[in-house]
Design goal:
Elements (H helix, E strand, L loop, with lengths): L1 E4 L4 H10 L5 E3 L17 H16 L3 E10 L20 H12 L6 E12 L2 E13 L15 E3 L11 H7 L1 H15 L1
Parallel strand pairs: 1-2, 1-3
Antiparallel strand pairs: 3-4, 4-5, 5-6
Helix pairs in contact: 4-5
Length: 191
């Protein structure tokens, strides 16, 4: 089975490839000739995943899946949420996004947060949604060099290391994306 993953984010593609069985070949946007940035104009994480999957299906005719993820922080009323990638403005800058989160949280006691991923799968003319949530907290300083995005300041519940301190293999067992991808794989293998 060949499925397009509506992403050119090499970190996400590597994470997904670790999770899917060899019977599923993952193609990136580059591999199907999609070089444009797909608009992410929805006001929800679910909406952006749907927009991206529909874009690929409608313009290129492939069965595909797309994801959107966000960091939701309790003390910030769910921010940065759908705006996680561009929280500090354009262009996307992980370091500036982290700085903004840490600045907004500096006088707050509640550091609870979660990462949320929603995957939209378009296959055989039907659409399916899968979600994954990793609960945890935000720490005050960056720790670790692995991962991307907010990984250096997020510690999952039950863990003492940030996502950026975990190996890709360790992260792929507990992350929000891993949870959603496992639901996607179960669906593909059982339908």
């Amino acid at each position: 089975m060949k499925l397009v993953f509506a992403s050119n984010n090499l970190n996400k593609i590597k994470e997904i490839q670790l999770l899917v069985p060899n019977s599923i070949e993952i193609l990136s946007l580059n591999e199907i000739g999609c070089t444009e940035d797909i608009p992410e104009t929805a006001n929800t994480i679910e909406g952006n995943a749907i927009l991206k999957a529909n874009y690929v299906t409608e313009k290129f005719g492939f069965d595909c899946f797309a994801d959107d993820s966000g960091l939701e922080i309790d003390a910030l009323n769910g921010e940065p949420g759908v705006f996680s990638a561009r929280y500090a403005g354009e262009p996307k800058d992980d370091s500036k996004n982290i700085d903004k989160v840490l600045e907004k949280l500096k006088d707050k006691n509640n550091k609870k947060a979660n990462f949320k991923t929603v995957i939209c799968l378009n296959i055989g003319g039907k659409q399916h949604l899968f979600s994954g949530i990793a609960n945890g907290k935000i720490i005050e300083n960056r720790v670790g060099d692995n991962g991307f995005g907010y990984d250096p300041i997020f510690v999952a519940s039950g863990y003492s290391k940030t996502f950026a301190e975990l190996t890709m293999q360790e992260k792929s067992e507990i992350s929000h994306r891993a949870i959603a991808v496992k639901k996607l794989i179960d669906f593909l293998q059982n339908s």
